[in-house]
Amino acid sequence: MSLDGIQKINLDDVWQGKKTGVEENVKIKIVLPLLHELGYNDITDMDFEHYVENKRADIALLVEKQPKVIVECKSLEKNLDDHINQALNYAMKQQIPYVLLTNGKEFRLYKPFIENLVNPKDRLLLSIHLKTLVHDYPELKDWISIDSLKTKIDKKAGQIAKKLNESITPKTLTENLKNAKESLTEDAKEKILPAFKTDLEFRGLVDKWIKDSELDSTKTQEWVDILANEVAYSFINKLYFYRIAEDRGIVKPKLKKQAVSQIVKYIDYNDLLKAAFADILRIDYEAIFKHDIFDKINFSEGHLKRIVDDLAQYNFAKINSDIIGKIYEDHVSKDERKRLGQFYTPDYIIDFILNNIPIRVNYKLLDPACGSGGFLIRAYDKFLKISIERKSENAHKTILEHNLFGYDVNPFAVHLTAMNLALKNIESKTDALNIIERDSLTANLNDFNSFEVKTLESKIK
Fold first, then answer.
1. Which helix (H) or strand (E) covers residue 365, if one does?
2. What is the topology classification, in CATH, of domain 342-461?
């Protein structure tokens, strides 16, 4: 059958009077003629008895007698979206690199596994429709003709996978973080008041937080809602940072997929996360991980399992640092931070100030009310530019440990600033972040180890 004949096939001849269940007719009357057109020989290039987990695949396309593509044929009435997971799981278990999924009217080529694309539907490499087959055939041939299978497909798939990763991973990960924050916020709302009434230590911390945040203690639901948001954000940020640090070798694995499945046999998710966060505190990152008021709420196990398992699917070692930072910015947007009560100096004012003060590689810059770190973040960029020009080593570590310092009375503001700065270059391990929860009106610069203050008139060294 010619290519034009395949495109113009009368589907009534495929249905043969039936309304469902014509998979075999799809395979014989549409798929096999197309594969012949693509250069495949029934005897040498195809296996019709290839078993995958006790199921016989419709067709396996062979290269050097090994399956390279599994062809899954469905009946004309089937929605291919309903069969993606099953088809890709079959291929992954047998380590077969590609899946061609078709119902005779559409042909989809998938790569069963693409790192950090957690939704199987996102691993689509190519989609061709029967009604435009002649027009789109050159592209189909370039992908899965017998010659392309031997010489081109792996390189083409690698290029597409890279583009898909860059475009899709930030969206799906950001969405996962937002959904996690929303579910934990609702969970926290139910638990804050009972803890406030029964836990005297927590009550004292909340009273101080309400005062420092300039909230009205009589408007209970208002401050509970705000605190629940901050508790949820703080937790998600810690979990996000920990997973990045874990995949990049900064801490030993506890929350990776294989590690989690073993550890939760013996302890629950709350205890697992407390142990993980305690591990990273031994390195430091205190400004991110140690805020007692945000650590007093134990979330529901079901929520934690889903969130931890979702993040365990990603390999953060393979996600570009710029993308990681962008995901964090999108997850905690400026609008959301403002809604949570943080105050901002507009960027143009920060730039005006920084452009009119000298910045030297050995200077120290203190923001006594740092908020979420806008001033310090832009100052970081100035110090980094100077360090690059001087070809300084360990610029990130040096800037965070010796150049930038911040106070804020609000623990959530301190947390946000520390996250923002640490994510500037998480590959560079930093043992100290000089962002401290203090009221700057009563604070002492000796709180920072890098400062030496002898008298009120002395210069900061």
1. strand 365-367
2. Rossmann fold (3.40.50)
Fold of 3-151: tt1808, chain A (3.90.1570)
Among the listed residues 208, 355, 38, 439, the one whose alpha carbon sits nearest the alpha carbon of residue 46: 38
How high is the pLDDT of residue 408? 83
**Domain locations along the chain:** 3-151, 168-332, 342-461
What is the 8-class DSSP label of residue 31? I
Distance CA 20, CA 38 (A): 28
- Chain segment 444-454, per-residue pLDDT in tens: 555 555 554 43
Residue from 367, 212, 382 nearest 291 by CA: 212
* Predicted local distance difference test score (pLDDT) of residue 53: 61
> How far is Cα 233 from Cα 224, in angstroms, rounded to an integer?
14
Kindly give, in sequence order, each residue whose CB lies less than 8 Å from that of residue 226, ignoring residues fewer than 6 positions away: 213, 215, 340, 341
C-alpha–C-alpha distance, residues 290 and 411, integer Å:
9
2 token code pair: 């010619």
CA distance 61 to 413: 57
Q: What is the pLDDT of residue 137?
A: 95
> What are the backbone angles phi and psi of residue 68, rounded to the nearest 5°?
-110, -35
Please give the full DSSP string across 51-98, using - where no structure is assigned. Answer: EETTEE-SEEEEETTEEEEEEEE--TT--GGGGHHHHHHHHHHTT-SE
Q: 98-102 and 66-73: which strand pairing?
A: parallel
454: Cβ contacts below 8 Å, ≥ 6 apart: none
pLDDT at 353 over 50: yes
Q: Please tell me the predicted confidence (pLDDT) of residue 82.
A: 95
d(C-alpha 139, C-alpha 152), whole Å: 12
Residue 455's pLDDT band (boundaries 50, 70, 90)? very low
Q: C-alpha distances in angstroms, 115 versus 162, 166, 194, 312, 327?
A: 10, 11, 42, 12, 17
Count how many Cα atoms sit within 13 Å of the Cα of residue 334 in the half-sphere of its side chain. Answer: 7
CA angle 212, 214, 217 (to 5 degrees): 100
Number of other CB atoms surrounding residue 223 within 10 Å: 19
Cβ within 8 Å of residue 291, ≥6 positions away: 234, 411, 412, 414, 415, 437
Sequence-separated (6 or more) residues with CB below 8 Å from residue 458? none
Q: What string of DSSP letters covers 393-424?
A: SSHHHHIIIIIEEEEES-HHHHHHHHHHHHTT
Residue 456 corresponds to which amino acid? L
Quote the CA–CA distance of 381 and 403 in Å, as a whole number.
12
Residue with the bigger pLDDT between 327 and 199: it is 199
